[in-house]
Write a structure and sequence with these properties.
about 160 residues, 4-stranded antiparallel beta sheet, about 10% strand, Mlu1-box Binding Protein, DNA-binding Domain, elongated
Length: about 160
């Protein structure tokens, strides 16, 4: 089977929003080779296939926050995001050959990220056990490892314009 898109490229398009891993409608449209408008129209025609845990719209505040990472979101009024289940459902409403092939790759990327997350949870549990066993003798080492495992913080929000702070 041909690989249209690399797993790394797809994984870089998966974001964590509201505690869920999601993909943005615009990114999905590019991957599927359709306009964002076409993707969203297909979803609207099949809206019963997309309950709130499959797809949701970002708030203005979420769009502003995300636009620091995804510059193409800056001026969009409405942005829909799809969870893994929503992306899977998209393959049933966008039935092109490219959509099917890309969907397979996207599902693999979600599985890969889930595997990484499970490894992280297991590693954290193992570190907690080791820390208890060695009574804090290596507390500095454990703390340094924990800091390395934490995701990097989002960049601070830039305030634009004049402020009387």
């Amino acid at each position: 089977m041909d690989e249209l898109v690399s797993a790394d490229k797809i994984e870089n398009k998966i974001y964590q929003i509201r505690g869920k891993r999601v993909m943005i409608d615009k990114d999905l449209a590019v991957l599927y080779g359709v306009e964002t408008k076409v993707l969203n129209q297909s979803v609207k025609r099949n809206i019963r296939r997309f309950p709130a845990d499959f797809m949701f719209s970002l708030t203005r505040e979420e769009i502003k926050r995300m636009s620091q990472i995804v510059t193409s979101l800056k001026f969009h009024k409405k942005v829909s995001v799809f969870t893994e289940q929503g992306v899977s459902m998209l393959s049933s409403v966008l039935n092109s050959e490219q959509a099917i092939l890309v969907n397979v790759q996207i599902m693999r990327a979600f599985v890969s990220l889930r595997r990484v997350a499970m490894t992280y949870v297991g590693l954290k549990r193992k570190m907690d056990e080791m820390e208890k066993k060695y009574n804090g003798q290596f507390a500095v080492v454990f703390e340094a490892i924990r800091k390395l495992l934490e995701p990097p913080p989002l960049p601070p929000k830039r305030r634009i314009g004049f402020h009387s702070d």
